[in-house]
Amino acid sequence: PHSVGALHLVKIHQLMCLCLTKICGSVRTHPRRGRYICVNQHRGQISQKRGEFKEVVMEEVRVLGLWASPYSFRVEEALKMKGVEYEYAEIDIMNKTQGLLDCNPVHKKVPVLLHTGKPIAESLVIMEYIDQVWKGESLLPSDPYERAQARFWAKFIDDQLTPAARRVLMGQGEDAEKAREEAENFLKVIEEEIKGGNKAFQGKTMGYIDLVGSVVTYWFPVLQEATGKELVTEDKYPAIWAWGERVLSCPAIKEHLPPWDKLVAYFRVFVAYLNSRSPNS
Amino acid sequence: EKNMGGGEEVVVLDFWRSPYAMRVKVALEEKGVKYVTKEEDLGNKSPLLLEMNPVHKLTPVLIHNGNPISESLVILQYIDEVWPHSSPLLPSDPYLRSRVRFWGDFVDKKIYAAAKKLWPAKGEEQETAKREFIESLKLLEEELKDGPFFKGDKFGYVDVALVPLTSWFYALEMCGNFSIEAHCPKIIAWAKTCQQRESVAKSLPHPHKIYDYVLELKKRLGLE
C-alpha cells in the first residue's frame, strides 16, 4: 500500500540513472526540494491529496512537457506526425499562486517521454527514439550521410546558436551585447547553408530539422517581440525567414504551435523574472 | 567483416591531443575499417580542414569517399550505421539506444566541459570545476554496475565517448591536485580494462605527453 509520506522523489535529470518500469510519472512538490517526478510504482492507485485516491491509468505513451517550450513542442509534434496517441501532462514551472519558481536544470529537462513507463529525456534523443519505434513518416533521412548532416545541424542549433541567442534576447547589458556577435555569426552560417542549397534544410516533407529549427523560426521571433530586441529578421536573414515561412505555414504545425500572443506574454513575464533575480546574468 | 570492397576512402582529419579525434580513431579501429589520418596543426589550419569543416574549423572530421562529417558523436553514429556488421557501437533496442545517446551527450556536456575548465583554472574556480567533474563522473560511474563496460560486457558508444579523456586524467590530477581514483575507483578500473584493447592503445597518446603539452600551454598562456 502506498502512503504519501513514503514518496520516492527523483530529480528529473536523474531519471535516466534509474532502471524503472511502470513509474507513476506525476509531478509532485516536495516542501524543500521543489518539483520532482514521482517514480513510485503504484499498484493501480495514486493519492493526489491526503485521503483521496484516484485510479491511475498507466498510459502507454505519456509526455511530460511545458506548453511554452520549443523542446516540448518538437516531441509532441514528432508523435503527432507519426500518428501516435499519447497523454500529455503539463509540468507547471510557473506556479501562478506562488509567484515564479526557480527555473534551472529542470527547465532544460522538459520534455520527458514515458513509453510503457520507461523514461526518455533530451528532446533530440527522444526524437530519435520516436523515429525508431514508430513506423510511418520518417523524421530523419534514411541515408546515413544525410542523417549525419541533420544531426550535425540540430546540435549546432541547440548547442551553439540557441545559447548565444538566449543571452542576446533574454540577457542584459554587456553580456547580451557580447553574445550578439556570436549569435549573428551562427545565424549567418545557417543562412549561407540554406542559400547554398544544403539538402538538410530542403526536405520536401516536414522532418527532424524543421521541428528542431522551429526554435529559430518561431521562438526567436517570439522572444524578439517579448523583449523588444532584434535578432532574426526577414531582411537580414531571408533564407532562414523563408525556411520558417515554409515550415510554420504547414497546416499541422500551424495548428499545434503554441499561440503567438500567449507565448509572447509568457516570455515577457519569464524574462522579467530572470532579470529581476540576477541583474548580472 | 573488414571494410567492404575497393574504392572506399576513409580519411580522418586528426589532432593528436584532441580527445574528440581519438574517439573517431578508436571507433574505426574497433570496426576494422582501413583509414588514413592527416594531422592538423590547429594553429595553422590546412585548406582541406577549412573546406571540410567550414562551420567549426575543428578536428575531427571524417571524410568518407570525399564526404565530410563533423562532430565526434555524430561521426560515431555514422560509423556505426555505415559499417554495421562488426562490433556494433550502439544497441539495436530503441530504449537502450536512447539511454546510450543520453549518456554520450552527458559525457560531453558535463564531464568534458568540466575537464576543459579544470586544467587552466586556479583557486575557487578550479575547485568548482573539480567538484563538477567528480560529481558528473560519479553519476556516470553508476552505469558501470552491470559489467566491465557501460553497456555491460560489450565495448560501445559510451565507452568510446569517454575513454579518450582518460589520457587526460594524469594532467587533470596534477593540475587540480587530486586523485580521480580516490573518488571514482570503478572509472579507473574501467579505464585500465579499456587500455587492454588494441583500438584504445593505438589511438590514445601517453598521459605524460598530454601533461607535458598542458604544462607548455600553461606557460605560453601565462597561467602558472
How would you sum up this structure, described in words?
The complex is a heterodimer of chains A (281) and B (224). Chain A is α+β, with helices and mostly antiparallel strands. In chain A, 47% of the residues lie in helices and 12% in strands. Chain A has a four-stranded mixed beta sheet with strand order 7-6-8-9, covered by helices on one side. In chain A, helix 1 links the parallel strand 6 and strand 7. Chain A starts with 8 loop residues before the first strand and ends with a helix. Chain B folds into two domains: 73 residues, 3-Layer(aba) Sandwich (Glutaredoxin); 128 residues, Glutathione S-transferase Yfyf (Class Pi), Chain A, domain 2. Chain B has a four-stranded mixed beta sheet, with helices on one face. The radius of gyration of chain B is 17 Å and the shape is globular. In chain B, helix 1 runs parallel beside helix 3 and helix 7 packs across helix 11. Helix content of chain B is 55%, strand content 8%. With 224 residues, chain B is α+β, with helices and mostly antiparallel strands. The N terminus of chain B is likely disordered. The chains are: A alpha+beta (281), B alpha+beta (224). Chains A and B meet through strand 9, helix 3 and helix 4 of A and strand 4, helix 3 and helix 4 of B.
Mean pLDDT of chain A: 77
Largest interface: A-B, 25 and 25 residues
How far is the first residue's CA from the last residue's CA of chain B? 50 Å
Summed up, the domain count of chain B is: 2
Largest sheet of chain B: 4 strands, mixed
Q: Could you describe the largest sheet of chain A, including whether it forms a barrel?
A: 4 strands, mixed
CATH topology (fold) name of the largest domain in chain A: Glutathione S-transferase Yfyf (Class Pi), Chain A, domain 2
CATH topology of the largest domain in chain B: Glutathione S-transferase Yfyf (Class Pi), Chain A, domain 2
Poorly predicted runs of chain A:
1-22, 41-58, 94-108
- Strand composition percent of chain A: 5-15%
Distance between the termini of chain A: 47 Å
Large-scale geometry of chain B:
globular
**What is the CA-based Rg of chain B, rounded?**
17 Å
| DSSP summary: helix tally of chain A | 9
Shape of chain A: globular
- In terms of DSSP E residues, the strand content of chain B is 5-15%
In the CATH hierarchy, the architecture of the largest domain in chain A is: Up-down Bundle
Query: How many strand segments of chain A?
Result: 9
Q: Class of the largest domain in chain B in CATH? A: Mainly Alpha
